Each structure stands twice: as structure tokens, then as C-alpha cells.
Amino acid sequence: MLLIRCPWCGPRDEMEFRCGGEAHILRPADPEALADAEWADYLFMRKNPKGAHRERWLHALGCRRWFNVLRSTVSHEILAVYRMGEREPEA
Amino acid sequence: MKRYSIFALLRNAISRHQDWTPLWRDPDPKPRYRVVIVGGGGHGLATAYYLAKEHGITDVAVLEKGWLGGGNTGRNTTVIRSNYLWDESAALYEHSLKLWEGLSADLNYNLMLSQRGVLSLAHTLHEVREGVRRANANRLNGIDAEWLTPEKVKAFCPVLNTSPEVRYPILGATLQRRGGVARHDAVAWGFARAADARGIDIIQNCEVTGIRREGGRVVGVETSRGYIGADKVAIVAAGHSSVLAAMAGVRLPIESHPLQALVSEPVKPVLNCVVMSSTVHVYVSQSDKGELVLGAGIDGFNSYAQRGSFHVIEGQMAALVELFPIFSRMRMMRSWGGIVDVCPDASPIIGKLPVEGLYLNGGWGTGGFKATPGSGWVFAYTIAKDEPHPLNAPFQLDRFTTGALIDEHGAAGVAH
Amino acid sequence: MSGERLPEGGRIDRSRPLRFTFDRIPYQGFAGDTLASALVANGISVVARSFKYHRPRGIMGSGAEDPSGLVQLGAGADSEPNLRATQVELYDGLVAHSINRWPSLQNDLGTLNDRLAPLFAAGFYYKTFIRPKFLWDRVWEPVIRRMAGMGRAPTAPDPDVYDHRHAHCDVLVIGGGPAGLAAAYAAGRAGARVIFADEQPEFGGRLLDAPETLGGRPALERVAEMVAELAAMPEVRLLLRTTALGYYDHNAVVLVEHRGDHLPPRERRGRTRQRIWHVRAGEVILATGAHERPLVFADNDRPGVMLASAAAAYAWRYGALPGRKLVVLTNNDSAYRAASVLADAGAEIGAIVDLRTSSDGYWPEAARRRGIPVLGGRCVVAVVGHGRVEAVEIRGLDAGGEKTTGARYRIECDCLAISGGFNPAVHLFCQSQGRLRFDEGIAAFVPEKAAQRQRSVGSAAGRFGLADALSDGAAAGAAAAKSAGFGSGSPPAMPAAERRAEAPLRAAWLLPGERPVGEGKAKHFVDFQNDVTAADIALAAREGFRSIEHVKRYTTTGMGTDQGKTSNVNALALLSRAVGRAIAETGTTTFRPPYVPVAFGALAGAQRDGLVDPVRVTPINSWHVANGAVFEDVGQWKRARHYPKPAEDMERAVRRECLAVRDAVGIFDASTLGKIELRGPDAAEFLDRIYTNGFKGLGVGRCRYGLMCREDGMVFDDGVTTRLGESHYYMTTTTGGAARVLDWLEEWLQCEWPALKVYCTSVTEDWANVTLTGPKAAQVLEALKPSFPADPSSFPFMSVRTGRVSDFPARVFRVSYTGELSYEVNVPAREGRALWEAAMQAGRGLGITPYGTEAMHVLRAEKGFIVVGQETDGSTTPLDLGLDGLVSKRKDFLGRRSLRRSAMLDPQRKQLVGLLPKDPEAVLPEGAQLVRELKPKPPMAMVGHVTSSYFGARIGRSFALALVKGGRARIGETLHAPLPSGTIEAQIVSPNFYDGEGKRRDG
After folding, report:
1. Is any Cβ of chain C less than 8 angstroms from the Cβ of A48?
2. Are C892 and C691 in contact (CB under 8 A)?
């Protein structure tokens, strides 16, 4: 039952959000130039760290904005919240 | 190993149970082993057992960071079935189910296998179509499968609400009669005892903290009890696959999520089979002890905390009460969470990793328990022969590069 | 039978007698009783049978910790299994039954198990019943199952209702005893928003259970004043009969409020029986108290053996004496107080047997003043009596506590009150991820470090003294309020409580008996509900189970409905002893929610019946209902599947509907299609990236069918998108995919391509879509007086007209999903039904026929048009569907790169084909699997499966769509569909069965 601070709406219950998984996976600029393995890395491979994790969340039942969260996957503590395009905070 | 039987039990009852011996030794780790298995859950212990039994490899250590079976083996809802859609999965899970059917005798340990039948409900025409498709595929793969009409569903499981008046009426169901449940802890203990009897070292409270490589191949593991050399290292640590693979510089297509389960207070027999529903999102069976055992979908975020959020449980209860209105006054006694390692296609990875001597068995998502013996069996083969058995050949890591995924989201029965 | 009601005293209302039955025998209690206190007052000693050995069991505790006194409560639909009699408030007409016995509580055949107990040691079932398998399957397992379980599940749907509430507060105080009260009072006085919850029907906690003074006055008078003051504070919410179940992340605490359980069922109707509270608290104060711990000794489970604090509570609070002559067995001072309370209530105290050699604290002195004999340095070695304690046998205890000494003598008694010290109730603290430490002083685990914004106070923190509870509570309440931004942090003055000298307890985990545990008939119970004995723990240790988690699972200790509130610490202490390890090193098992069991119905709340998932209907739904439509669920939508006429089955109705479309005109409610408006200068560029085919060249007023893939190249959704203006597009999606597609568009726009100026709006609910299709569709539309020429020549295929139809503002799309001339007339949702009826009127002479989704499927399948989710299953690419023409080679799009991976290029991939059964009347079941080589029996290699299959009314035969390995190269070949009912043969054909040239779409 996370309490997530939407950067647009303020703190709201987890029930209003949807987690979109690992953040900052950039879509390759020229997919056709990639080898299958490189494309697979973009498509499927994930950091899945035990500890601080940068992930993106959607305030699905609120403002419907996506934003980024830095959260511990061990304690569930939310270390930072930042908007799309904002600088990544240090872990 | 002292054999168990009714006679042994009687004999020991007379001697007041003073003569039973430990199920497994508690050895200190040796400096090196031929094979080190990381993870003392059902899959890891089964791997060790079949390495010894099928391949004669006994210079093996199973390293467990906590207590045996304390991960997903002891946290799952114990459903066993093999009615998967694709040929590749069906073959693997059916191999496992066949092993289950003789496993208590093989291990000389009663795993309390209860083949009470698994019903997978269909609530929409779409699900009917998919259910029929799966039942037909199972049947032609030689796996027992039946399609039941709502009337037959009611006859098979009378406590289900088959009224057409509910939000999502039951339009039919697939039934695998050979499916069922088993006693999960016993699986870990039974395999551990049998593996130990064949000379394998089972080492608890031994956490792997690093994987040592030299010249592109594995040479051993760093642990909380010191360095242990190994020719081969096999990772079978559900909930930590990514963390362990990362120690060897390998990236995996796996994300770890909480999956919650719960039991009710025990009651006299009321539910005679396993019931699964993916539309209303719940699966339930009754344990030998009388508890209703329930699970649902995973929590949406990544976590290594073995706990999820309460609203997930509430949604699951709403689904249960919809299917079984008479369970509304039953009470939740205990709830818990595990960590499931989920692959994008809801199928596992069982094979070699791109570091020589390093193997992975993981990514079983929500459905690993049923595969325990089969998974151990094919993984032992893979480690012993350094190549996958035909049964697990389709489940290699490179399928994510070629695109030959085995998409079992439908059959997994749990929303990923 | 020796419990009795005292002539006076207690917090029961003797002017309100209440009738109840237990095992069909009528009894009487009073308002204020629990079922347990009423049973005690009525002298009922045996309340239940234990799980495994069916030993008679009585009431042992007085609250959530009681492991033994479980009953089946209520009758019929109100029946509830396994309720704890100590937590059931008595109401008039209450019906309770004992459980787990047959044929009756007094004569239970299950007691045979007790005789055979040597066989039934912990984990016996793992060691036997292994061979032969069929005996296990057919005999042993069913027997074990029948023996297991406690009460019975209800047999009728739940007549009660439940709800959920969400609440936010600055300070949540859990527990209404002195510490919690002080904390709530301090926080409330500071002005914080406070929620103050207690599981009992009134505040006071342990002050209710024994006499106490505060500031020189009866404590409960002061409690009442403080509660009244709290109740008057506008920002304070008091919740009685409310138990905290679970403590989750970020200070989310779930409570259950029992709003109706104390009322007779008929008075409950119309109000919620139970309410779940989701509380999000700034600060949490845990004042959850402590549970008294039993001592482990021979036959410590006999009815009449009761926790000392509970025995006193029955006497003082409920005016019910649990026995006339009691013996008290203790290792600490608190039981002396219980003895004094009982003595003052009129009980005879045969002796206080203290494991310690000396006792000189405040309470021992008080007991001695009352003339109660104290036997120091001794222990109970045997409990005499079976269905009821008759006497105890006592011997001396040596200094090490491991051996008995001296003579053995007997004291007659009918109740043995025991105390092994207290365990702080750290359940919620542990659920909040707090860290415990083992406090040797009180021989119990206490909170060490909180992990969330939380404080433990009073007994919950191992501070058992009343004065400490008050001062700690007030300090914590004030500090919590200050952290939340209220007050100075200095606590208000608390009423004075006496500070009493207390001597340390003597930790004793297993009292020595006449014979070692496991020998002789005596059993030393650790878990009273699951029948786990000290011998079982020793056996587990002997068999190599060293982790307490293993021992728990192997012996089942702590796994009953009480979740080990009385047994856990004793079990882990006994294990520690057995393996020679410190208790702190053994640690505890994980404390799992819920703290007490909670009804499934309460957790479901209002999400039941129709509300388990919202129902969506179209604006024309009422017409469909009125005209006898049969519905199907598609996502959350109810869609009309067909409109049977009297005496028509589905098959005939669908044939009629199909023929009407092919020969005249059909009318179809397509309002459920997802509709998304996209606006902005970059909309065309965005659509180009999203769809596999190009959209930049689409002219204003034109429509185009598009396919969407996920990044892995698998088909994700499809639909027609229309360019309404220079930078204004109107996208339609599948019915089930609308929300998913909108999320998908937004995710890409917001996360990956924020530079694109595009705005997406869902308009699914804004428009009704009345589709007219068939050769006479134009005539119907003309009759509706469109504000534009509607004939197919001036209104070309794949274009849109905006204007008015039947005087309603309308957007009309000339797209066709049936292959016939079609107009999808979209009007504002509120006009949907009026337009439908106008069209029905206009088409009356033309044979207009409403058709449902089933006919729609037949018609589209005859044309080979796919349904995403039916012809695709998440592993199907556009190329598999033969839609190469829609896969642009000139631009990138989502999923494009994936289509070049080696597995995507395999010629043996499943491809979409048509099938014509050899027997034109035989309709293949959808989901039938196809084989090339028929074998007498499985296994058989499958080459594909049927995705859509119907009888085509106009083509006059059955046909199907299928995905077949390398299918396009196999056109003309014959496949077999082996089914349980027989095999159907079919020929592979091109997936287009009607009007291959596509002439009919223009009428």
C-alpha cells in the first residue's frame, strides 16, 4: 500500500496508480541498425535491481500523467519522484 | 537413510520417537564441488537429487541462504497440473506431472499429492474458445483434458455459483482430473532427505555473495561461509535470479514481483477440487488441513520484499465471493507474499548462460511449484551433459533474441 | 461444572438477561457478557475438542489470544465457523455449537486419536501411507481430510453486507488501554487529527479486567472522562469493536470495525455487519498490549486450566467465577494479583504455586495479606481430571529448574490459573518491518527499532507498569502530534497511578514432570489448538529441523486460527533449548497479517453481485433489452449477441440476421467500439509511428484501416482511423482494447516522444454508433434525410461525412465490416436510441433487421476479416495474418524491428487460412486443433487450430478461419480436426469466402 507523491497531484494511494516498470529505457533511434541481440536487450532485458530502482508510474485514476519514481525494491521506500524529462536524482 | 513406512512408524511409536534421525546432515561446506547449486528450494533440491540419481553426480552442494524451502516452495498455493497450451510447455509440465505421480514412493516421503482435479473456468465466449483450444491441444498431446459445460461444472464442483445471473456467469471450464495439490514443504524436505542420502551436501544459512570467473568461465562462488570452488554453478533461486545472474555480468529478461497468497481458517471438507478463474481473478483449493488456499494476480511493481499491497487481496476476495457466495463468512487466517521472477512470455528459462559453467533455472513466474520435479530433472540433465534435454531445449535464454517465445499468459491462469 | 455467576459485580447489565443456546441447550447470560463469560458463568467446562487428539478443551483466555474455545456461531445463512467464544459478544437468541466432534461434544469418537497418540507424532503423515498409491488416494487422504478442519463452511450465501472506508489522520492510536488512551488524549489535545481504535466494545483495555485506581478514583471513571473529552474533539474519531488487522507500507493500516456482530441477526439487516477501514496515518502509536503466556507442563490443556489474567477478568469484569477453588501456578508477580482479585470475588485459592523460591513484590504481599498460601520453589507435575480439573499434584523444583524434588502432594481444585509471563503483542510492529530484540528481563521479544513513523508504548513495548503506560503513552502521543505538526510535544498531565515494586520472573519453558516428555501418557501442550506438544518440538529438533520456520511447518505450531499468540514464544524457546542455542538467535517466525481472522465478505466489501466489475451498456441498450436480445460479455460491456424471435434458437436467429444483411439491410449497435480523438500538428507523424501502415498520406475526410503492434511485433489492436481535419483524427479501436490503446498512446507520447504535439481524448462514451449495412442500407439512410448525398457514388467507400442525420448532428463513416454497403452513423450518445428507432422506422418496408455480435462475426469471417484476440493470441504478427500490405517498408513503426528476427521469418509459422469442412453442414468448434496425419490415438502432431468457425447462411455451408503452420503454402491440402465427438475433415482455402472481388461494399 504505497503512498506515492504524484508530481502533479500530490500524495495519493497506490490504488490510483499503475506501475510501468523500469524507467529510462530509450527506444533506439534506428532499430533497423541493431543486431537481434541488441534489439532483444532493449525489448526484454531488465535491470531488476535489489535496491534503488528507477521506474515509471502512471497516475491512472488521477491526472493520467506518467512520471518517474526512485524506489527501493527492498524497503519500498520512495526515495524520489520526478517528472518526465527532469534530471534523474542520485540513487 | 532410514526408510519410512507404517512399520517404522509403529516401531518408533513404541520407542517414543526417540530413534528418528535427522532428515539431512548439516555439513560444513567443502572447499570445492563439481557442481554448486545456488538455491535450496524445491527446484534446486530436485536438481541435486536427479544429478545424483540419473547422472551419478554426487559431488554437489546445495547452498541455501536461509532455510530449505523458505522461498517460493513454502509460499505457493501448491497447484499441480500440466494443461498448458503450447506443445513445448505441455511436454515439460506433463513430464513433471508424471514424476509427481510416483514421487512419494521414489523419495520414500509422503508428499500428500492429491489429484483432485483442476477446473479452469471460462466466463466469456473468448475464454470458452481459448479453453476449448487448450483442452483439444492437451488431449492431442496425450494429456488428460476435458471441456465441461456449465451443468457439468456444477455437477463436478457443486459449491460453485453457476447461476447465469451473476456478473460473469460460468460458461464452461476445462478440467484436468490428474491435476491437484501437494504438500509444498514436504517437497523440499523429501528431496533434501533423498539427495542427502545420495551424498549431496545441503548447506543452509549460506548466502552466495559473488560468482567468481576466470577467463570467461565460472570457477566458484563467494558465500557468507567463505569461497567455494566449483566446476559448474547452477542458479535456481526464484526471487533472486536477476541478482545472481548480475554477479556474473549476465542480464536477464526477468522482473521480480510480489505475489500474495492466503489461507482461510480450517473447515471440514467443502471444496473437492482446484478452481481457477482468470476473468474474476482467483484460484482456490482446500488443503488437507481444511484451509482454503487462495492466490491471485501479482502486484504491479518490482519488489524483493516478500510482501504486497492489501488492495490486491481485497480484489481477490471479491472474486472468490463472486464464485463461491457461501465462502463470504469464512475468514482469512494468514496472508503472505513471495517474490516471483516473471519472464515476458510467462515461461521459464532453463539452460546455459553465456558464461561457461554457469546455468540458470528461473523465471517460472507464478507457476513453478507444479514443475518442481520435471524442472529439476531437465536441469540436472542440462548440467550433467552441458546441453539441454529436448524437453527444455525450447526454454533457452536465446529465445528472447530469436523471438521464439512460448507465450503462456493464457495458460498461466494468473495475470502477469 | 463448577464455574458460576457471582451474585453481584462485574460490568454486565443484570437487568438485561439474554437467552442463548450452546449445543441446543438453552442458557442465560447478561448484556455485557461474551459468549465465553456466559459459558463460564453457566459452569460449562468443555467447550470444544482439539484439532488432532480431540481432547476436551475449555476456555483458556479472555480475548484474541484464546486458542481453544472455538465454536460454530449462528444458524443457516448466518452460520460462521471457528469463532472465538472470547470475542463473541452475547446477544439475545445467540446460537452456538461445538465443533470438531462426533457425535457429540461429550462423547466424541475422535478421542480414539488420543489413545493412538504415539502414532500421531508431529509429521507422522510424511512417513507413511506412501505405498500403494491407490490406498493413499482413495482411503488415507480422504480420511485425513475428514478428520481435519474445525467448523463447517456456511451452506447459503451471506445475508449480510459489508463496506470499506478510507481515512487519513495525523495520528492513529491502536489499542484503548491506558497507554493508548494516554497517547490519543495527548495527540487529540494537541489538535492532531486522531483515529483511536480498540477491539473491545468500550475503552479501557486491561483497566476493564481488574480493579485499579487512577488519581485516587476508580480508574474507569477517569477513563470515561478522558474518552468523553476525546469524543468532543472534532478532529478525533473513536472506533470501538475495531481491530487493526495489518500494517502495510507507508503507514497504511487496515482495520476491521464490527458494526453488527454484537446484534441479533435480524437487527443487523440494513446496516453493514463489518467495515474495513483503510487508514493512512502520519504517525502510528501501537498500544496493543500483551498476551499472557501459558506454562508448559503435563496435561496443561485440561478444561479448567486458564490463564491467570483471564480468570481474574472473568471474575471482575463479568462477575463469573471460573471455579470455586483455584490453584495458581506462576513464574511472576502478576498472577498474585489475579489470585487476589479472585479471592476478593469469593473464590477459594488453594495455593499460589510459584516457580521462584521467593516473591516479595507488591502483589505477592497483597495476596499474603489475604491469607492465600504461597508455595515457592515448586511446580505442578500433574493435572488430575479429564473433562475438568479436579486436583493438581505439586512437587519442589530444583535450582536449575530441570528437576523436581521432594514429596509430591495433591491439592483439590477445579481451576488452575497459570501465568508464564507476558508477550508484548508485537504483531503489527513486525508487520511494519520493525526489528525485535529478546528482553531477558521479561523473557519476551520487544520492539527494538521501528521501520516506519511509528511508536510502541505500554505493554506492547514491554513496559507493563500502569504508571509507565500512562506516561509513555502521553509522551508518545504528544511527540507524534508534534511530528505531524501539532502542539509543542510536551505531554499533558496524566492521573497519578501507583508505582508497584515487582520482582523479576523466572523464565521456565518446560516444567519438569514425573517422566521425560514424550514418555507416559501425559502431554505437554505448546500449541493448544493444533495439538503440538513439547515432545513434538523435540522430535522436530531431533529430525534436524533447526530453523523455527521449519519447526512451525513440521509440527504446525502457531498455524491455527490464533496464529500462535499463546504458543509461539514457548515453541521457539523449547526449540532453542533442544538445539542449545540462545532464544534471541532462534528468533521468531514472521508475523503475518491479519492479526485476527477476518471475513472474506468484509474484504470484498461492496464489490459483490453486480458491483464486482462495472457493467457498461450502450445508449441503445434499453431497446435491445426490450426486444429480447440475448447478451454476451465483451470486456465490461454487455453486447447484444442475437435477437431471437419466438421459438427461434440462436442458430436460426443468426442465419436469419445474416441473410437480412446480405439480402436487404441490417442494423447493428457498434457503440462499444473504442473511440479516441487525436488532435495536434504532429498527429499524422504519431499515427505513422503507432500503426504498421502509413497515415501521413491520408486526406482530410478519408478513413484508413490500421494495425498496431507491440514492440515485439505481435498484433495488439486494429481499427479504422479517419482524418476529420488538418490536424484532427478520429481513431476507433476494438471494444475490449479501448482503454489499453489509449494508455498505449499516452505512454508513448508522454514517456518517449514528449516533443510530439498530440492530444488524445477518449470519446467512446460520447458517440452512439448505429451501423446500417446491406444492399438497401443507402435507402434507409436516405430515408433518414441526411444533410449530404448518401448514395455510394457521391459518398465513396472509406470516407466520412459530417452533417445531420434524422436531424441529429452526425458523423457518418463509409466503412464496412460485413462486406456489404455500410454506413456507420455516429450521433451524440444521448440521441443513439432515437436514431436507432428512426432507422428501424425508416427501414421497415425494406426488411431492416437488427443483428447481434454473432451474426456480425459470421459476416466478417465470410470476408476473412480478423478479430484481434480471436485470430491473434499475442503471438501473431501482421505477416502471419497475411496483412503484408499493411506493413510499411518505408517508415519505422512500433514493432517493426521485431518482425525481422529469425523466428519471425520461419516459413513454418502459423498463418491465417480458410477452412472448408468436407461436410458442409459440419461446423468445426472454435478452438479445434488440426492435424495433418490422423493417428488412432494421441499423441498427434498438431499443425494449427481453428480461430473462427460458423455456418455461412448466404454461402450455404460451414467454413472456418484457422492459423496453420506454413498454411499459405498448403492451400488445397486436407487437415483433420480430431475431437472427442469424432473427426472433422477440412480443406485449406484462401480466407475469403464471399464476394472475393469486393463489389458488394458499394451496394
Report:
1. no
2. no
